[in-house]
Amino acid sequence: MALTRKGAARRRSRNNALERPEYGWIWKPLLALLVIYLVVCLGLGIWWSRTPASFDVEQAVVEQRGASSGSTAARGAVTTAALMTLVETLLEKPGGYLRNDLAPPGLWLDNMPAWELGVLSQARRLARSLPAMEQTSAPQLQTVKARLMTDSRDWLYPGTEKHLAQALDGLKDYLDSLGEGGDAAFGNQGQGLTAWLEAITGSLDELGRRLTASIGSRDELRDLNIDTEALPARTPWYRVDDVFFESRGQAWALMHLLEAVRRDQADVLASAGVSKRWEQLVAELQSSQRRLWSPLVLNGSGFGIFANHSLVLANYLVRARDLARQITTSLGEVTAVSAPTTSESPGSKAQPSENASEQPPIDTGDGSASAKGENAGQGAAGGEASAGKGDTPVETAGQGSGDSASEPNATSPSSPN
Description:
Layout: H1 2-19, H2 27-48, H3 57-65, H4 77-92, H5 111-133, H6 139-148, H7 160-178, H8 193-212, H9 240-264, H10 266-272, H11 275-287, H12 309-338, H13 354-357, E1 361-363, E2 369-371
Antiparallel strand pairs: 1-2
Helix pairs in contact: 3-4, 4-5, 4-7, 4-9, 5-6, 5-8, 5-9, 6-7, 8-12, 9-11, 9-12, 10-12, 11-12
Organism: Halomonas ventosae
InterPro entries: UCP029693
Protein name: DUF2333 family protein
């Protein structure tokens, strides 16, 4: 009987093992896969957060014109090619365009998306000014402006990448027209240049305010010529890196665009006597792109152990703002004198320029677009832009890091993780 019971017990044990196998071993390979996934995401995040290198604007013309680079192009080719390269950089840098990512590792990053917003902001600003710089009607420029002004966080088809690619195609068509010996070309009197510089001055002033808003002691701002009463609310500590990297993105894009415009409008700048100051302006922006050795954007004070990276960057941008303001004033005086006077027929009225009255849609970062006018006199000669206004994308301090409160109405941010 004992043997029979032992045999029955063995049979039941075998049956139980077959019917209810133990899966306790499965968690080990699953855990290993999870660790590998996290390590890969971390590595990609670090790689994707590296700021792209600067480029030579003359070489950009050769690359963008391709087979046509051997022929002479009209005034404006260097600026157009530089703008094309900025848009290409957003699409083709490591990781591609990250601002609208819905999956890791792009979803976890905030510094590079903020940098992208900064570059896109300056690309939009120039795209809005190009029709005023062009001496003829160029329908491609209207297409470019419309595509760049879409929501930077669009991910549902057509996503932001699609809109950027369409803007790139429009710029390519316009660049080709500049080299065909037609009427397409920038005006030889610097048309539209002053208005663009005024917008730049306002954006640099706004960036300076946002950067200095992270500083606890207002006494540290006395050498920056910043009205502390007009500063926005203090930036939360978790948003400091976002504002820093958005500002770096705008400065990175702006230094290339200014260098390109200098090549296209060299005679205009020389006649206004601002060539030297223009070079100084570009040099200030280049200095703002020095390598950040710290893995974190620090917000120290005075002569303490830690640096204050926001304050250092604000110094460069405020000096650039002052130079841009001086250049705008000088150019405005020259263009006002050299502008051709035309007789008006009785009863005729001067038509306002397209850029002066236009209210382009503003990317609010939440999928909606609003309209906001850009005051032509704001910034350069009209004083300093108030915080949160102007066409500079600004992200409100209360929003999360990837969430630019408004790309021309909010405050955005970021840094390599």
